[in-house]
Amino acid sequence: MSRTDGLWSFGGKPGRGKTHLAVAIAYRAIQNGFDAYFTTAATLIDDLSAAFRAGELAQALPTYTHPAVLVVDEVGYLTYGTDAANMLFHVVNERHRRKRAMIFTTNKALKAWGGVLHDEDLAQAIIDRVLERGRLFRLDGPSLRTLHVNLDDALNQGSDRPEEVIRISGNRCPEFPEPTHADCPPS
Fold first, then answer.
1. Contact status, residue 130 vs residue 91, Cβ threshold 8 Å
2. Do the bridges between strand 36-40 and strand 135-138 make them parallel or antiparallel, or are there none, so unpaired?
3. Which of 3, 19, 30, 89 is the most exposed place for a label (fewest CB within 10 A)?
4. Which pLDDT score is estimated for 68?
5. Full-model pTM
6. What is the C-alpha separation between 167 and 164, in angstroms, rounded?
7. Cα three-residue angle 136-22-91, rounded to 5 degrees
8. In this structure, is the dihedral angle defined by the CA atoms of residues 92, 98, 102 and 108, taken in order, positive or negative?
9. Helical segments of the chain, H only
């Protein structure tokens, strides 16, 4: 990984492998002698907001600005305080200035980051820095967590059909069926 590598954003619906891929890249960086740090956006924002209120922002920032690779997971999954964009901007701007790798995972379109972070202008500045030397990857396809139940089809068709409501796993019949369960052949 060179000094100019690595401002990435992995976007897509839940279960598409965004976090898995981000962690794999960070792990590979560690294997190659770099340090890496993984955090959620909510934890980063909450931590820096608390440090700011305590007058200790300068002491808290190196946790997020120093590592060679920073993974910020789940941007947009949870709601953040009104200072969210300000806190995230401190990290992104410093890492951008020092050409340090950042990886974001998000289920939100980039145009929605302003609403999520409570500041359209700062969100735009964050995205501008991330994409100047970075790339946005959209991960599509079915959820890897729910391949066995074909969740995407169930959500599109309305899964309130009786055969879908009682199914817990991808198997139509339980492994150890009740003797009175008429729909499943005996094992």
1. no
2. unpaired
3. 3
4. 97
5. 0.78
6. 5
7. 75
8. positive
9. 18-31, 41-53, 57-60, 62-65, 84-97, 113-117, 120-132, 151-157, 162-165
Q: Residue 51's beta-bridge partner residues?
A: none
Type of residue numbered 50: A
Q: Please give the Cα distance from 88 to 62 (Å, whole number).
A: 13
Residue 111 one-letter amino acid: K
Please, what are the averages of pLDDT over each run of 10 residues along the chain (187 residues)? 64 94 96 97 97 98 98 93 96 96 95 95 95 91 78 58 50 58 57
* pLDDT at residue 1, as a whole number: 43
Angle (nearest 5°) at CA 29 between 26 and 34? 115
Single-letter residue type at 109 = A
How many residues in total does the chain contain? 187
What is the structure's pLDDT at 133?
87
Distance of alpha carbon 157 from alpha carbon 171, whole angstroms: 19
Closest CA relative to residue 66, chosen from 95, 92, 44 = 95
Q: Give the whole-angstrom CA distance, residue 62 versus residue 38.
A: 14
Q: What angle do CA 51, 46, 58 make, to 5 degrees?
A: 30
Handedness of CA 85, 80, 103, 17 (dihedral sign): negative
